[in-house]
Amino acid sequence: MSSVAKKSLGVLWPALPFFRPTLPQPAVYSRECRVERPDGSAFVAELAEFGLGLDYVAVRNSGAKEIERLALKDILKITLPSKVTYEPDSQAASAVGMDNPRESGRKPFCVRFQDDSSWQAETLGFLREPSGLFLFVVERGSLEATRTFIPAAQIKDLQIGPPLGDVLVEHHLTSADTLSKALNKQSKLRQEKIGKYLTDRAIISQQDLLVALRAQQKRPAARLGDLLVEAELITSEQLQNALAIQAAHRGRRIGEILIEMGAVSLRLIQFAMSDKLGIPYVNVREFKIGSGALESIDMAMAIKHQVLPLLRTPDSLVVAVEDPFAITIAQELRFHAGINIAPVIANPQDLKARIAKEYANLEGRTLDPRVSRGSPGVAEGDAAAANAAQAKVTDLASQLARESQQTGRASKEATTDARVLDNTLVKLVNKIIIEAHAQGASDIHIESNAGRSETKIRFRKDGDLEDYLDLPPTYSSALVSRLKVMAELDISERRHPQDGKIDFSKHGPLDIELRVAVIPTINNLEDVVLRILAGADAIALDDVGFSTADLPMLRKMISRTYGLVLVCGPTGSGKTTTLHSILRDINRPDIKIWTAEDPVEITQPGLRQVQVQPKIDWTFAAAMRAFLRADPDVIMVGEMRDVETTKIGIEASLTGHLVFSTLHTNSAAESVVRLLDMGMDPFNFADALIGIVSQRLARKLCSSCRQSRVVTPEEADDLASEYCAGTTLDPRQVRDQWLADFGIDGNLILREPLGCDACRDGFKGRVVVYELLSGTPEVKHLIRTHGPVPQIVVAAQAGGMLTLRQNAIDKVLRGTLDLASARAVAS
Length: 827
Hints:
- This protein has 827 residues and is α+β, with helices and mostly antiparallel strands.
- Helices cover 36% and strands 25% of the residues.
- The strands form five sheets. Strands 1, 2, 3, 4, 5, 6, 7, 8, 9, 10, 11, 12 and 13 form a 13-stranded mixed β-sheet that branches. A seven-stranded mixed β-sheet has the order 25-24-26-27-23-28-31, sandwiched between helices.
């Protein structure tokens, strides 16, 4: 808890979908609130600051002048005692087929908290946001609602609608076999989309969007600054300061200035525009784009302005944008498309990904300008023809095959037709890269095969390789040569491996870079692997995947002013992502952070980042020596791959600098032995070491379709024995603790992959599995005495470390991993 004397940003409570207050809502909500804590304590105070996008709530106790900020994770529930009486919004409800919103919207709910306590009642509606759950709790038959918010960190399980527990009670299901069947039934029901509506604010259907747009037209116009002041998201003084800046820089938008001032976040601005002005907020990840919409705006303009056409109506083109108040963009789009523009709001990250994905199939087209602009004079049949005329990757591959036959030169050594190089092959290479980026692939593998075998192209997604495309063998050499040209490599050199980098913004519509590795194979062929460097932003340390027990320990480690922190693991295990999340957590204006990386994959404002280039002797060691002359507070070196870099890093950590780096080792304890084997002084190393993170990435179960099963007693015993192997833990005690922490009706539940439209074979994304070794006095003593790995592991476990296997099994019990993936990543 912290106290602040500054003026609060205000309170913004979301509206209830498909209902409206019987009386007009006041401009300022009643500020009295009841705050309940997980320990059972509660107090009543004035709600001073609260809204979507914030990870805290600010309250003012009675008679106090100062505002106290409470982290949401430390709060069980926030309730506004003042009740609001609602009435159905019949127009909005009928648009989605809800005959009686009074009854259809009302649902029983059951929230299970982290301490396994639960709360059951009835809600008139709900909104689920990343920060937590908003409920509108009512008594049976009443439309008078009490507004309640439960932080996401406190929710262990949630059931809205007829709960599975009612089914179990009704049918007296008590056996493990019957319980397993019931849980599988629940998993199946969660996949069904029939009857499901509005699980969050975002619109996902064309019908809902049209209804929302019609409702928006009835709302009065307002300026963004006035809107934010009315919602108490900013003060009048902040608005006047922003307007003064805007007056001096006419090209800048007021929202952009307010965000840079730190007065408000983009998320809160978007929500305020949606809630107060009725501008629809669209989930562009799931929205089904209408026929002919994409063709209305060409790819270059869509990427330039980050705009995605969603729906074309007779009198307007609906487009998703980050800021619907950007009038100049709307005017340019209207001129380009020849039709009125109706902007709606979308998440900028989702918007960027969907634009890249959708326009990948439209790149390189050569259509009638009237069709590409989607002018009103084009008939629907012409628009359909335009869709069919788009150059897809399979079409380009077929065209290559036809051109191969026409040239009559099947040998891989033959000179390729210049027309093909300038057109089809260039388009094909660009399209492969665009689609790989849109699909979230990390690497593109191009594998040339001897004889008449086709050249195979595969994408690595979520750690696994997937077949993407087979190309005629004739163009294997031309394809590799084209990539070499893009990477500025020697196309005549085919005997030695080559490394390079492609700046794709020079060749295609995406602002990304690709690291290129060309490797000669048998039969005088070459393979190419492209690593996509998308310039991603660093993720918050809270979102990396560290447990609630380990995260405070890690934060304590990185809060030190000097010492050495290592992140270990094999290639592709997320070490760079973790390091940048750590740097983001400690990145402040009062410290200087230097990084030496190869390559620079993630950029952050405030960091001074350096790309090493060994070819000109600008190595990690050379960069470290330069950093030490540049008054650093924190140094991050991409890898301690040699003795010189390692020695400089340890010496720097002992002379008042906080040093971060990575190692390619299999476990945290092995990292200690590896550095000692490299000749590091054990006393210096022991004094410098703060902690070591060893990690892997495992395939994460899809939360939409994972199915549950009950663990038999024999399986539970075996899993507990596996968890305790090599430790002094008692498997029986561990199993009993699992039943207390994760059990349901006296049974342990495991989740398994099933597969649905939202995932790949039951998996979606990856999650980190890790060890966190703290540099305790016992560990430091073993380092000084060259203690063996088993002794270091025992000492680290005494300091609170879980092994990779234990951490993986813990994630299995929490439903994040399946057992097979956990065993694979920890083996």
